[in-house]
Design goal:
Layout: E1 4-10, E2 14-21, E3 36-41, E4 50-55, E5 60-65, H1 76-90, E6 96-103, E7 114-115, H2 118-125, H3 135-148, E8 154-158, H4 177-181, H5 191-204, H6 206-209, E9 212-217, E10 223-228, E11 231-235, H7 256-264, H8 270-279, H9 282-287, H10 293-298, H11 302-326, E12 331-335, H12 336-341, H13 343-351, H14 362-367, E13 380-383, H15 388-402
Helix pairs in contact: 1-3, 5-15, 11-13
């Protein structure tokens, strides 16, 4: 049987697993295709957790609600254990040759995929305070895979690495240089997703993909990136995955003085503030309804509509900011759970970007087309499915065969 690569990708409210052939990487930058992929979403934040597995053709292999008798699985660790258990019992393929992991924060030192060892795990654990919704789950996935597949190489792939090529002017805060040198800087995140879009967009529009492109990764975690020639120039997330756009439970950009006020005048502890900003704010905090855009769109509550309007406005404002960083824009690409599926929201955003030269094709946008704008639109807009797992698999194969 063909050896396999397993990928693990733990997000703030989901965990994804996929199985790929462990074929040696060729000269092409094309992304590999998974034999099967599974996802548990709705984890935490009071959401309804569900575990699904599909084959390469999208046919369901498993669909399980993680409540009632399965409530113990409605956490990141439980869902991961359930996916690994399913693979052990019913997954197809031969030996697991390596396991690739999404690691959200690589700090200043880790800017390329690398083999995991004890010292790397220790170093990455020290970055947990910078990404408390993700890094602990990422590392828990690594440890679980090391226990489940003893002796099998584990490869860490870093979300921050994609942005390490940004100009220094876009990497700095206006703080004393010693703090920058100590690691207080703009890192950027969702790099594996952006790398996926670079590959996918390059496959269908190779010339356009090399120009000035803004990618909007919109989901429970949301960010945007301006790039030229497929390389990051500027992005909305900075020191941690808290900054930038309004998100599911995260506040996004906020005046730092608000934090000082909460600490000094409201008597909140640092832990209280962290919980507020990371877990109780964003769409959930504004609406009082849900962190899930689908639930907000279905709600009749005025606060839900206000949360959607706020999210839309933040995306539109950041479009302008990134267009400035790129000195213009040639294409916009939507991806992520919201970006790929919320057609009315995409339309609202693009209509607000008419000043940039965007001409929306409403029928194409609502009809499932990849291109969302008219043929004569000076700035084209697209929707493409992100595939972080394929990027992780490609990196893992390269690391494995370079050893």
């Amino acid at each position: 049987m063909t050896d396999s690569l397993l990928t693990l990708n733990a997000g703030s409210s989901s965990i994804k697993v996929a199985l790929f052939d462990a074929a040696p990487p060729g000269g092409s930058d094309a992304l590999p295709s998974a034999r099967w992929s599974g996802q548990a979403d709705g984890l935490g934040a009071g959401l309804k957790a569900r575990l699904r597995v599909h084959d390469a053709q999208g046919q369901p292999l498993l669909d399980e609600v993680l409540d009632g008798a399965h409530a113990h699985k409605a956490s990141h660790q439980g869902a991961l254990a359930a996916l690994l258990e399913w693979h052990a019992k019913k997954g197809e393929g031969g030996r697991i040759a390596a396991v690739g992991h999404r690691i959200v924060h690589g700090g200043t030192d880790f800017v390329a995929p690398m083999r995991v060892d004890a010292s790397l795990l220790d170093a990455l654990a020290k970055l947990e305070p910078l990404a408390p919704l993700h890094q602990p789950h990422n590392l828990a996935g690594v440890r679980a895979a090391m226990a489940a597949f003893e002796g099998v190489p584990q490869v860490a792939c870093f979300d921050t690495a994609f942005h390490a090529v940004q100009p220094q002017v876009n990497r700095r805060f206006a703080l004393p240089r010693a703090l920058h040198d100590a690691g207080v800087r703009r890192y950027g995140f969702h790099g594996l997703s952006y790398e996926s879009i670079v590959a996918r967009f390059g496959a269908i529009e190779p010339a356009l993909a090399q120009k000035r492109v803004i990618v909007a990764h919109l989901g429970n975690g949301a960010s945007m990136c301006g790039m030229v020639q497929g390389r990051s120039v500027a992005t909305t997330m900075t020191f941690s995955p808290l900054d930038g756009l309004t998100m599911g439970t995260r506040c996004g950009h906020i005046d730092a003085a608000v934090v000082l006020y909460l600490l000094r005048s409201r008597g909140m502890s640092a832990d209280d503030v962290e919980k507020l900003l990371f877990r109780e704010s964003g769409l959930l905090g504004m609406s009082g309804v849900s962190s899930d855009m689908r639930a907000l769109e279905a709600s009749n509550e005025p606060a839900a509509a206000e949360a959607i309007a706020h999210f839309t406005e933040q995306v539109v404002q950041q479009m302008g900011s990134l267009a400035g960083a790129l000195r213009g824009v040639d294409a916009i690409v939507f991806t992520g759970g919201i970006g790929e599926n919320a057609a009315p929201l995409r339309e609202r955003i693009l209509e607000c970007c008419a000043w940039m030269g965007v001409k929306v094709d409403a029928d194409a946008n609502r009809g499932g087309a990849a291109r969302l704008t008219t043929a004569d639109s000076p700035v084209s807009a697209w929707v493409l499915r992100t595939d972080e797992e394929a990027v992780i698999a490609r990196h893992t194969a390269r690391v494995l065969h370079a050893a």
